[in-house]
DNA sequence: TAGATTGTTAATCGATTAACAATC
DNA sequence: TAGATTGTTAATCGATTAACAATC
């Protein structure tokens, strides 16, 4: 939410968020075997303005050939480099509920430069098991494990009411970035990076769009 | 991505995305038992500008008392009404991988007005099972099930390469809105609502923020 | 060449933030 | 009252889109 003021580089936040989109499209079957692709072609598929694509590419120094387009492998290589796919970052995940489980089983992360090394849960029953080569410990062993093998990123997939507590623990240990999947935003010092990924905002948008055409009456006034 | 041009009502898209945030905070333990809360107080917790909060509230006709703040129960009631929490919308989910499983087990949806009625998978082994009271069918039984008990929303949690095919099927059957969790954006006719929720954009932001301070050199130029 | 596309600069648009009057 | 807060209007800021020159 607070992205704007942290952006000292002049690279627009929405551009960064679009990069994985381009990457995924260029690597998908929809595009396989195309050596070159033009911005208008991508625009047609992704429903993004073609000058915006050109602009995004120029931000990250992808350059193309007039009349021909961009070399697909170039775009892929540069975006992957930009997103650090080849420099694995380690993470601890806390909260082995449904979402936490899904994330530690999500193999795509390894290709995307994210390596979840250990998972934690408050449930002592879960301690000791191993999923997808990721060992599970009780949350009270967090600090000990962190000092043995520190990580940069902490992933929070606990229920909202416990998210802040977990964040505090992570920060105390020295984690640099927190990826918070709980519905409640967490408070952190200025030097800590936070990214909130809550699916609720997606649901809110869908509901909103669905209702847009059947106007909502509220307090005798059309909203 | 294309939200802007679809927004005919003058209510900013970021406002809609913030509503679940406010709701979650106001219902969380951080705030329990407070009858009134002021915008500056919420601002401090959520790290959002307080005038933005005031503005968001005025958009959805939440009004407060000078010097006192807003009545917590009012905000909650109005946001819930706005987000349609009390008008359940039905959905089919396609793709019972890790994420799909997590979503059908995610009980919070029922409180948020989303009811996944049936799930589908391409794997015939999964057909017949029942998870969280949601019956699982093979994907080739989609059409039949839809005509028996139609739904407004289709949720796609299949791998990227199959997302478009599933979307086409949903649209053919008459689904109005598609919530696409795959990494590749899908193409749909103008009258169909799409919301893309890809966790990759969150990861991209984290990577970006982590690397911002150690400047990336690319092509002899600082990016 | 004619036409398509890149890539940059300028204009527009929308969201956030600042300023401030009204109010309790 | 003095001070805090709402709520609106204006200014700013950033992102998108339009325009167009350059190029192949």
How would you describe the overall organization of this protein?
2 copies of one chain form a homodimer. Chain A is α/β, with parallel strands linked by helices. The first copy, chain A, folds into 2 domains: 3-82, Winged helix-like DNA-binding domain superfamily/Winged helix DNA-binding domain (Arc Repressor Mutant, subunit A, Orthogonal Bundle), CATH 1.10.10.10; 89-203, NAD(P)-binding Rossmann-like Domain (Rossmann fold, 3-Layer(aba) Sandwich), CATH 3.40.50.720. Chain A is built from 10 helices and 11 strands. Chain A has a 7-stranded mixed β-sheet. The first copy, chain A, has a two-stranded antiparallel ribbon with strand order 1-2. Chain A has a two-stranded antiparallel sheet with strand order 10-11. In chain A, helix 2 packs across helix 5 and helix 3 packs across helix 4 (50-59). The longest helix of chain A is centred in the N-terminal third of the chain and has 15 residues, at 13-27. Chain A binds a DNA duplex (24 and 24 nucleotides) through helix 2 and helix 4.
Q: What's the quick description here?
A:
Two copies of one chain form a homodimer. The first copy, chain A, is α/β, with parallel strands linked by helices and about 220 residues long. Chain A is built from ten helices and eleven strands.
């Amino acid at each position: 939410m607070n992205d704007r003021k942290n952006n000292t580089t002049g690279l627009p936040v929405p551009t960064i968020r679009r990069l994985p989109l381009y990457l995924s499209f260029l690597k998908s079957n929809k595009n396989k075997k195309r050596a070159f692709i033009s911005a208008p072609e991508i625009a047609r598929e992704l429903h993004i303005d073609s000058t915006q694509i050109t602009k995004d590419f120029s931000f990250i120094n992808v350059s193309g050939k007039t009349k021909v387009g961009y070399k697909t492998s170039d775009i892929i290589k540069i975006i992957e480099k930009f997103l650090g796919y080849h420099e694995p970052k380690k993470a601890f995940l806390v909260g082995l509920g449904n979402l936490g489980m899904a994330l530690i089983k999500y193999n795509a992360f390894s290709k995307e430069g994210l390596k979840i090394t250990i998972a934690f849960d408050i449930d002592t029953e879960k301690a000791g098991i191993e999923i997808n080569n990721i060992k599970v410990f009780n949350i009270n062993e967090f600090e000990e494990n962190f000092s043995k093998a520190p990580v940069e990123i902490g992933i929070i997939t606990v229920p909202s009411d416990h998210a802040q507590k977990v964040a505090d623990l992570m920060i105390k240990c020295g984690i640099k970035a927190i990826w918070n999947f709980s519905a409640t935003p967490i408070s952190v010092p200025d030097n800590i990076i936070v990214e909130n990924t809550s699916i609720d905002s997606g649901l809110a948008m869908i509901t909103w769009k669905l209702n847009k055409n059947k106007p909502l009456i509220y307090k005798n006034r059309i909203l």
